Amino acid sequence: MLGVAGAAAWWLGAQDESVAPAEAEPAEAAPAATGAPGYVGAEACGGCHAEQFAQWRGSQHDRAMAGASEANVLGDFSGTRFEHAGVTSRFYRRDGRFFVETDGADGALAEFEISHTFGVDPLQQYLIPLSGGRLQALSVAWDARAKAAGGQRWFHLYGDEPIPHDDELHWTGAQQNWNYMCADCHSTDLRKRYDAASATFATSWSEENVACEACHGPGSAHVAWASADEREPAASARKGLSAVFAERREQRWTMDVATSTAKPAHARPLTAELETCAPCHSRRTAIAEGFHAGKPFLDYYLPARLEAPLYYADGQQRDEVYVWGSFVQSRMYQQGVTCSDCHDPHTAKLREEGNALCAQCHSPARFDAAAHHHHPAGSVGAQCVACHMPETTYMRVDPRRDHSLRVPRPDLTASLGVPNACGGCHEAESPRWAAQQIAGWTGREPGGFQHFAEAFAAGDEQLVLVARDTAHPEIARATAVAALGERLDPLRFGAVRERLTDASALVRRAALESLAALPPGERVRLAAPLLGDPLRIVRIEAASLLADAPPGALSPSQAAAFERAATEYEAAQRMHAERPEHRTNLATFFARRGRTRDAEREFRTALTLAPPHVPAWVNFADLLRQIGREAEAEALLRAGLAKLPNSAPLHHALGLALVRIGRKAEALGELETAARLAPDDARFGYVYAVALHSAGERERALAALDGALARRPRDSELLGAAVTISRDAGQRARAIAYAERLVEAAPWDAAARALLEELRAAP
Prior knowledge:
This protein is an alpha+beta fold. The protein has 39 helices and 18 strands.
């Protein structure tokens, strides 16, 4: 058996196989289809659209990225020094160029030239070119706010947290890589062009900032239309544009006297603008290159759902989520409000300041009054956004408002621990106090548009109601459907199966994800029809789900559809071949298709790219187990633990591996460690308890289950195990108590009710 050092050498071996040149991304992007429109540049637009061009010039979009020059650099490069965690960085100029002396990838101080500015307000970052075509975002940034507001200074984006050179968050690391993390949203017509064979980028753009065609699409056809002596009527309808924003212009709003709020002629979400803004104003993963305005957002991007740690249980922003996922939860979006109702798309500024912005739709006589907001006129509390769009500060100095536009719910703070707008000002008061104040003002139960917080927090069968109720925002329903897949009991399975034909692609994809635990044949029956879904996010998930379909399970037409979707899935992962998570996805996909050699190669590459990437270790070990190489699997897991000794998934996987080879005493220790390191993971607690029970340690098993149930009190798997173990131990009263909890948690479960009755009837 290999020792830890030997195992480390083993998995790092065969580096010549780490990349398959035949499967690597091409260095050059595929040429555009014949007749496809091309990019012409903002100056070409400005010739006819002078007013809009002038509004855009100098905006945050215009200055999203720029070459490092005297006109663009805001920071103090006069030889100033900034110290952070023992590293002193020095900023200076030489021969009209800008430099920083700071710690490099090896931890030693070195000189680096600044090539580009990144952003302009309230902070400006700086990009540094490194080898392999990489641009890296320096973590020491310039606070561009006025000095009176605390700005005009250097600061570190991670505050006082030390970020040593070997940390993945260090400015030289993958998490600060502009080509992957930032470029797509700060430039126009970006092509990342990562070549896996040489591990280099040849990233290109049409314009280095966010210019006209970033929002309007490639303009060559429009220029041709505008220049034509005669125009075909059919062509004139779109004027050669790939995106036409007619929805908002055609929407008609009238003031409803009863509610003092404007109502649309047709209450429905408007998607044209939103799908144009979404790629850069959402938390998402790109799944294909070539998006431009007018194309479907979900054909090119996979957006995040309302899940931790990005969001709180009620859908409020927690991490940086860039607006889209918040806004599509809102009542305003459902009614037909769209981005440019509030934001001027050319200046990128608000259309009105203060409460006047909201007064466009909400009568100020009713809403901008003390009888509504219950705060002194002119105070912070009298501002609409203070209560309905509270701020969270990111990147140390950048406050961003939550765009879910919800009513304050301090009662949910008391019950679920989510934040509320009242607490931002009334820090000395309790959430219960704030809830009582609101109840006194309104005289009714707390309300609002979003009604899924309790279901998300509990994770129980309330999720079924959210999944089925189309009155909920589709992003909330998709989040609920995905959560149902954690345990597919009959009730949950029925709800998931229904959602496979949902009108929402987000929901359809979530339903597919939730079927992962089903046997392959059952997955084929349910998922095969979605291999031809209109949207790529659904097709590639169906392909992933059916990667291990039994031979002959798919009809000829389904098999052809699978191959097309599988090609799209592989391309989506290869698009980010420099990232370990995408290599791991690809490796797992290959393993399930029986392409063992390809899978091994991708796993090894993932671990070479980022040894801390835990899923690569765990999934690679599982592959080795499946092909009968148990000793190598154990060695691999031990090599991973040598690098990541506090990884609960690695301890858990090693424990299971040791159980399989009969070393149960050692296995128990590993499973215990996993449960201790990740007490919120119910699965780890369950497996550890079952292992204790198998070892004859019934009381310890029940204690482990009680610990897990303290965090997941309605988890039916934990409760079922507790019933069984306490019954086997002859503790009938204790078993009945657990069974009663199980029936309460899963009232639809006939087997649970029968078990309870059996226990009650026993002598």
